Amino acid sequence: MKKTIMTLSMAAGLGGMLTLSACTQMPTEKQSISDMRPQISFKAPDEQTRSARVILDGLDMGPVGSYLEGAASLRILSGTHLLSIASGNQVIFQEKFYAGDGVNRTFIVN
Q: Signal peptide position in this chain (predicted)?
């Protein structure tokens, strides 16, 4: 009887150890890639300027207020770009600039 109980307890212990070893997770390697695309943002003094449209290389990218310095930025491709800010039918700001990888540039729009 003692031998049977001892055998059963050893079998239960061995089964528990096998169950625990089956639950282990193999180590994994996690790498993150940082986004090095250039970014542009704007300083705009008033609501009218914030509602003006950002036009980058002829494409409307949305209002200036969507890309205010410290809150959000517009990620662009490296290279030379033509930036225009339009309020209604009037261009209030225009600049041709070069942006390289990792560059953060802020434009002041008055």
A: 1-22
